[in-house]
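Minimal example, chain plus NAP.
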Amino acid sequence: MSKTVFITGGSSGIGKAIGEYLLLNNFIVFGTSRNPKKYPNSKFTLLKLDINDLNSIKHFTNNIKKKKLRIDILINNAGVGITGPMEEIPILEMKKNFETNFFGPINLINSVLPIMRNQKKGLIINITSIAGYIGLPFRGIYSAGKGALELITESYRIELKQFGIKMTNIAPGDFSTRIAESRYHSPVSEDSPYKINYKSTLHLLNQHVNKGKNPLILGKLVHRIIKSNNPKIHYKIGAPVQKFSIILKRVLPDLIFEKMLMLFYKL
Ligand SMILES: NC(=O)c1ccc[n+]([C@@H]2O[C@H](COP(=O)([O-])OP(=O)(O)OC[C@H]3O[C@@H](n4cnc5c(N)ncnc54)[C@H](OP(=O)(O)O)[C@@H]3O)[C@@H](O)[C@H]2O)c1
């Protein structure tokens, strides 16, 4: 029997690519969007969901229950970027980013778990980021939110084992998507002491995303994870230099790693 997959943020980029790949491999795929009508050409059904809105999450899961659909796999993919100097990002914007990248996925997971518990089975895949392993300059809040999602996956995994529910993370490096366009960029004042460094880092950041890999390969990885009996806790996918940075951080003395990071960002 075909498995049913739900992907948050299926309208664009990584979520869209994963959905299209799984569709080709005979899965029943549902994606989500805050505005499904904007995507009439989506190859799979897009359901309305705003991960920041608890009522929207409740409505989404109630609909699944009403339609008696299974949730074999949930992919928490919806997410947004945020950049800026830690000192100058408005705290409200930091909280908003955490709503989408951290609390939203928790609310959705917790709303879906009773369904999976009933099924005595389920797999949840959280899309985090290689940025979640490193406190990146001018991306501190994004790094923190994704790193936090990586950590709570470890907690959930142990708590959920007794119910036959599995959870894992995929941390991508740079992939060519719409993420740079929809990112929140903190405004800095003309006389900001961070202006020059922030501008040059942002320039590099956009270059990296534009040169990013094709998100289709994430579809292949997700398929491999679904087929695996015992998914790993953390998966990393991206350019070798990005994956290697996590290993370097683990093995190098902190101060050497920090120096390398600053050289990489020309800071
Ligand atoms: N691209 C990269 O290089 C990269 C690297 C590491 C990790 N990631 C992560 O990968 C995931 C997908 O990003 P992407 O690169 O594919 O970006 P994208 O092209 O901008 O897609 C983001 C998706 O998230 C959805 N979304 C945003 N806010 C939402 C909200 N409040 N509620 C529900 N859905 C929301 C959007 O759907 P609607 O606008 O239609 O609602 C869209 O489908 C994110 O979690 C991102 O952090 C990306």
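The domain at 4-264 is CATH 3.40.50.720 (Rossmann fold). The chain is about 50% helix and 15% strand.
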